[in-house]
Amino acid sequence: MNILITGSNRGIGLALVKSFLKEKALVIAACRNPEKTGELIKLKREHEGSLEIVCCDVADDNSVSACAKEAGSYVTGLDILINNAAIYPKPNEERLEEIALKKITDAINTNTIGPMRMTKAFLGLLKKGDNPRVVNISSGAGSISKLMAPAPSYGYAISKAAMNMATRSMAGDLKAYGITVVSVSPGWVQTDMGGSNASISPQESAESITATVLNLNIDKASLWLNRQGQEAEWAW
Ligand code: NDP
């Protein structure tokens, strides 16, 4: 089993790397600054032959293309792509009058276009994968029907809602190739993004996401799932 995870140097991404290594997968850990990722480098030493670290800025076309090329030197097909990397622009100026619109376009470029850019670049490898799956890490903050109060960051909420629609669009499009595309919510997790008051650890989140991803097949294409793999209609 081959898997590539974006934003793998910390938080939920790093926990997913550890969780899939336990499943004996060949893990390709993609991150922006491979040379600065002490924990990944240590893991690579401990899991020689099962972990590769590649450079990837999901907000940048050239970086993503180079990443796909490098990944292609390690695997002939990709079974699982987890689009985990995301930014949460700080909601310090959340009145429309004051907000810098660039914060919103940056969030959309990373959180919405990022997963599409990755999926497009890895399509060739995914087509050669076994039960190929694309998992877009979503958020309750992207729910339109269940508005969060107080409202979360404009850029984050808009970008995650749009990412859910990208999941649906790609799921319909790529079904013809047998590629399953879903959105999965990780829960409220103790990371730099989720904060220390969050309800679960990265490990707990990653282990349940791993079990969900291992059970995915084309019948689940286009669904929005919670981390335990149940369909969560309220999130749309
Ligand atoms: P963190 O802020 O802890 O980590 C974010 C990761 O994304 C880092 O590895 C970061 O890399 C990476 N990243 C950001 N921008 C880019 C980029 N342009 N290219 C490549 N990597 C990038 O977040 P979490 O681990 O908490 O979040 C992981 C996912 O879970 C996200 O999609 C998030 O939206 C989602 N989520 C998290 C929740 C929570 O409670 N934590 C709740 C709901 C959803 P770098 O170190 O280089 O900045």
What are the key terms here?
236 residues; 7 strands; alpha/beta; seven-stranded parallel sheet; binds NADPH dihydro-nicotinamide-adenine-dinucleotide phosphate; 13% strand
Characterise this structure.
With 236 residues, this protein is of the alpha/beta class. Helix 1 (11-22) packs across helix 7 and helix 4 runs parallel beside helix 6. The chain has seven helices and seven strands; from the N terminus they run E-H-E-H-E-H-E-H-H-E-H-E-H-E. The chain starts with a strand and ends in an 11-residue tail after the last strand. The longest helix has 21 residues, at 101-121. It is 39% helix and 13% strand. The model has no long low-confidence stretch (mean pLDDT 94). Strand 1, helix 1 (11-22) and strand 2 (26-31) form a beta-alpha-beta unit. The protein binds NADPH dihydro-nicotinamide-adenine-dinucleotide phosphate.
First-last Cα distance: 31 Å
Trace the largest sheet across and list its strands. Answer: 3-2-1-4-5-6-7
Q: Which whole number gives the mean pLDDT?
A: 94
SS field, number of helical segments: 7
Taken from the alpha-carbon principal axes, the silhouette is globular
Largest sheet: 7 strands, parallel
| Class from helix and strand fractions | alpha/beta
* Oligomerization state: single chain
**Percent range of helical residues:** 25-40%
The radius of gyration computed from the alpha-carbon positions, rounded to a whole number of angstroms, is 17 Å
How many beta-strand elements? 7
The residue ranges in which pLDDT falls below 50 over 5 or more consecutive positions are none
Bound molecules: NADPH dihydro-nicotinamide-adenine-dinucleotide phosphate
Could you state the order of secondary-structure elements as H and E? EHEHEHEHHEHEHE
Beta content comes to 5-15%
